[in-house]
Amino acid sequence: MNTLHDATYTCQTVSVSVPATSANLGPGFDTLGLALDYRDHATFTLLNSQNPADVQVIIEGEGAQSLPTDASHLVIRAFYQACDALGLPKRAVRLEAHNTIPQSRGLGSSAEAIVTGVTAAAAFAGLTGEQAKDFIFELAARIEGHPDNVAPAVYGALTASWVTGDASEQHYHTVRYPVRAAIHAWVIIPDYQLSTKAAREALPHDVPRADALLNVSRATLLPAALVDGIAYTSTIGAGISTTGAKPTGACDSPAAQQQSETTNIEGGQAETASVDDGQAGIVQTNAVQAHRSQTTAVQTNAAQTALPGQDLLLAATEDTLHQRYRSSLMQPSWDVMQALRQAGFASTISGAGPCVLVLFNSTDNAEITDGAEIADNAVIAVDTNSSVDAQVDEADRRIRAIIEPWLHNSEWRVIHPAIDEHGVMWQCTKEA
Q1: How far apart are CA 178 and CA 140, in angstroms?
Q2: What are the pLDDT digits (tens) for 189-216?
Q3: So what CATH class is 183-259+268-415?
Q4: CA 40 to each of CA 60, 106, 134: distance values in angstroms, whole numbers, following the listed order
Q5: pTM for this entry
Q6: Is the separation of the CB atoms in 52 and 92 below 8 Å?
Q7: Does the 11-179+421-431 domain belong in CATH 2.10.109.10?
Q8: CA 46, CA 36: separation in Å to the nearest integer?
Q9: Residue 415 half-sphere exposure, CB side, CA atoms within 13 Å?
């Protein structure tokens, strides 16, 4: 990791803005992340004291009643770690935080806090441009322990991240994909929290090989469904795979037969792939089968009735590797996601949960609805001859109608942020 030594403060005040992120994106567990234009803002002002314990922390918005207001605040801890890496002498600062990103909901609040602190130190030290962003990404990922939220928070858009090296020295890498302007996002924010630690502890060490293979195919497909310049087609359609069911028109090649034998488990056992060490083995999968029985009907219906222009997104957000194993920890969110997918919306649990992310593709080249009246709880068809705004408005209305049972008499809420293409932004406002 590149560091600066004996850096000096170049300004008196730094303002930082960091977007929310949705990581573990669909099938992209610990890899894919998407930046959302729903931002936290922070202002750092240097104080006269040389004692870091004299920090002042003022919080407005999310976390104002629960987050610490001393040097133990995650933003402050990340700031001083970055000061050490840059060779900046530690100074007391006043942090004024204006938070909109909910805490412990799967929208990257911890990554946002770390990126905010590291960015402030980099800005005080005078780093700019790509040099600054690369420093921020590497150090923030090291502090966070994984890069899938940090990468979109720093670079914006869609990111695919990976780690090289071993436990003694890890290196973090990412690739940024510009997202199609036609992609629109909604986030359904429930009225409860879920810790990342609890969500990770719910994951098994081994998963069926067929599930691992499906996730590989979907994770490969997802960037193609979101990236600018990729043409949408309607060739996916009813061919969307459902775990334990052969897609329409699937060939009966030996490879297909072998995968079918693995997928359609008899006697509660199946060949598996290990999440931790890659070793295959035989494990009991009764719990897996129970989850499959809950989702097969939903997936099949969604596959056969995908919205115009949504078929690729719907396929690309399918996951069998992590979300269902955590479903009991966030059953209402799981039910919301399933209801939306059944109605043809590409929906996924955001991060470790419990927020639900919905993605929609506005299009002008898909089949047009016949104009028949459609009940609010039915699979929707959007008139693709209408303007983009009209399509998005109709999608918004339908999403809210589908989830009305969860919104009614609760503190659940829905936001409709744009896809963020900028990542972290900062400004030094006064010369030191």
Answers
A1: 22
A2: 999 988 888 888 888 888 889 999 999 9
A3: alpha beta
A4: 10, 15, 21
A5: 0.80
A6: yes
A7: no
A8: 30
A9: 19
